[in-house]
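Retry 2 of 3 after timeout on previous attempt. Resubmitting C-alpha cells to design endpoint.
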C-alpha cells in the first residue's frame, strides 16, 4: 500500500472524480448511482458513502448502478472488493455503459445470503454496454522519462496483482476465462459482453428481458448448455440435442419446478437438472442448472438470458418485465400435457431405478414382495385406466384424486407429477413371475 501511494504521487494528474447520488433508475432498482470517470481515491469515497448511509450487510438489498467509461483501475478493483464485502448488488441501466475499471467494480456486485453465503448480484439492461480490457498506463498528455513510464507500468501491474489476490482471498466472483480475455484485450480496445453465452459463462443477469419463443425441449437444451458454460467456465462447443422424450424426472415442491434429463457434455452423457424457482432479495435469478453425476456439486445460477441460444446478441433482444410465474409454463405446457392417472399404454418398461424394483402383493411399500423386476424389463399393465391412489395422507389423496379427475390444467399437471414422485399412484402389472403392483414412478413408456 505504501509503495502504491508513492507511485501514485509521482504520476498525480488532475481527473474529474465520479459522482455518487442517491437513487437512480427505478427499473434496475438503483439505491445509489455512480456516474462519470473513476478517479484515484473514488473507492474511498464510495466506502464513506456506503457507511455514512448505512448501506450493505442488512436485510434490504442495496444496489449500486453504474454509468462510467472507467478510469483508475486500482480503484475499480477496490470498489469491486468493497461491494462483495458489503453484499451490495450492481446494475447498468438502459443507455448506460460500464467499461474498463467500472467493469471490474461491476463484477463485485453481490448479495450476502444466509450464514454469509455469497450470491453474485450483477445485472445489465439489454440496452446497456459492459466492456473489459487490460489496464492502461494512466498518465497525463506530456513527455515522460523512462523512470516515470516504469512507474506507470508498476501501478498497472499492482492493479492486476490486487485483482488476482482478491479472487484468491475472497468470494469475489471473477472467472479465469474472463480474466484471460480481459488481459488479452489491449487498452485501446474493449471486450464487450455481447452474447447470451458471454452473460451465462460469467454469471451476469440481463434484465428486464422478454421470454424466448421456443419449445420446452429446446429451452432445456439451451439452459443445460449455458449452465455448463458457467460451471466449467467454457463457452465453446456445440449445443447437444436431447431425445424427444427428454424429461425422465420432474418434481414440483415449495414453488420450485425441477426437470432432470440426459445431456451430453464434454463427450460424456450426464444428467442435467434445470430447477426453476423465484429469486429472492430482488435478485434477477430464475433458478439453477446442475449436473448431478459430477461429484463437485456445482450449480450455475440460471437467468432468463440463458434460455436464449448461445450466439444470440443481447442488443437484439427486447426488454420486458416478465413475472416469474410465466417461466415454468414454458416448460410444463408441452412437457406435462400427456400426464394423467391413466397409463398411456398397456405395456411399460421398468425405469428410474438403479437395478430393479420390487413387485408387491398390494399397492404399498409395506406389502409382501412377490419378485424383483429388473431395470428395462417389460411388464403388462392390467388395467391402465384404473390406477390405485395410495398417498401418504388424506390431504394428498384429495389433491391426487382431484388432479386425476381434471388433469389438463398446468396446476393439475404439477400435482399429478408430485403424486407420481410421492409414489401415490400404483398399477397392477403382469410379468413372467405372476401379477402384482408397482408404483407408477417406476413405469415408463416403451
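Retry 2 succeeded. Sequence:
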Amino acid at each position: 500500500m505504501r509503495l502504491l501511494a508513492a507511485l501514485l504521487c509521482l504520476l498525480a494528474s488532475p481527473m474529474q472524480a465520479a459522482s455518487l447520488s442517491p437513487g437512480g433508475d427505478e427499473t434496475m432498482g438503483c439505491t445509489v448511482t455512480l456516474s462519470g470517470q473513476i478517479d484515484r481515491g473514488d473507492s474511498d469515497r464510495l466506502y464513506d458513502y456506503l457507511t455514512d448511509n448505512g448501506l450493505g450487510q442488512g436485510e434490504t438489498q442495496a444496489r449500486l448502478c453504474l454509468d462510467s467509461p472507467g478510469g483508475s483501475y486500482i480503484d475499480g478493483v477496490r470498489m469491486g472488493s468493497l461491494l462483495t464485502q458489503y453484499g451490495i448488488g450492481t446494475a447498468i441501466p438502459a443507455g448506460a455503459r460500464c467499461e474498463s475499471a467500472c467493469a471490474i467494480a461491476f463484477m463485485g456486485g453481490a448479495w450476502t445470503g444466509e450464514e454469509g453465503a455469497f450470491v453474485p448480484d450483477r445485472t445489465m439492461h439489454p440496452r446497456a454496454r459492459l466492456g473489459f480490457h487490460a489496464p492502461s498506463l494512466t498518465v497525463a498528455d506530456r513527455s515522460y522519462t523512462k523512470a516515470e513510464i516504469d512507474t506507470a507500468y508498476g501501478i498497472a501491474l499492482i492493479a492486476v496483482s490486487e485483482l488476482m489476490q482478491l479472487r484468491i482471498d475472497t468470494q469475489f466472483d471473477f472467472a479465469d476465462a474472463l480474466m484471460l480475455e480481459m488481459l488479452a484485450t489491449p487498452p485501446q480496445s474493449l471486450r464487450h459482453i455481447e452474447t447470451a453465452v458471454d452473460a451465462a459463462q460469467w454469471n451476469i443477469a440481463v434484465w428486464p428481458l422478454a421470454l424466448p419463443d421456443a419449445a420446452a425441449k429446446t429451452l432445456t437444451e439451451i439452459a443445460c448448455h449455458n449452465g455448463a458454460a458457467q460451471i466449467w467456465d467454457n463457452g465453446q462447443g456445440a449445443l447437444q440435442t436431447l431425445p424427444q422424450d427428454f424429461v425422465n424426472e420432474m418434481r414440483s415442491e415449495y414453488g420450485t419446478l425441477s426437470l432432470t434429463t440426459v445431456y451430453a457434455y464434454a463427450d460424456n452423457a450426464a444428467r442435467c437438472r434445470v430447477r426453476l424457482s423465484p429469486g429472492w432479495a430482488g435478485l434477477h435469478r430464475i433458478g439453477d442448472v446442475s449436473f448431478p453425476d459430477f461429484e463437485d456439486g456445482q450449480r450455475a445460477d440460471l437467468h432468463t438470458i440463458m434460455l436464449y441460444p448461445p450466439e444470440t446478441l443481447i442488443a437484439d433482444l427486447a426488454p420486458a418485465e416478465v413475472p416469474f410465474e410465466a417461466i415454468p409454463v414454458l416448460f410444463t405446457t408441452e412437457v406435462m400435457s400427456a400426464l394423467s392417472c391413466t397409463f398411456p399404454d398397456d405395456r411399460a418398461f421398468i425405469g428410474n431405478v438403479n437395478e430393479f424394483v420390487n413387485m408387491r402383493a398390494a399397492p404399498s411399500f409395506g406389502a409382501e414382495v412377490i419378485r424383483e423386476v429388473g431395470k428395462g424389463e417389460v411388464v403388462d399393465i392390467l388395467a391402465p385406466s384404473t390406477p390405485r391412489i395410495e398417498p401418504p395422507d388424506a390431504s394428498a389423496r384429495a389433491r391426487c384424486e382431484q388432479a386425476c379427475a381434471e388433469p389438463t390444467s398446468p396446476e393439475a399437471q404439477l400435482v399429478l407429477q408430485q403424486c407420481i414422485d410421492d409414489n401415490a399412484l400404483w398399477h397392477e402389472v403382469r410379468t413372467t413371475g405372476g401379477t402384482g403392483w408397482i408404483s407408477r414412478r417406476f413405469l415408463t413408456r416403451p
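Attempt log closed. The domain at 2-193 is CATH 3.90.226 (2-enoyl-CoA Hydratase; Chain A, domain 1).
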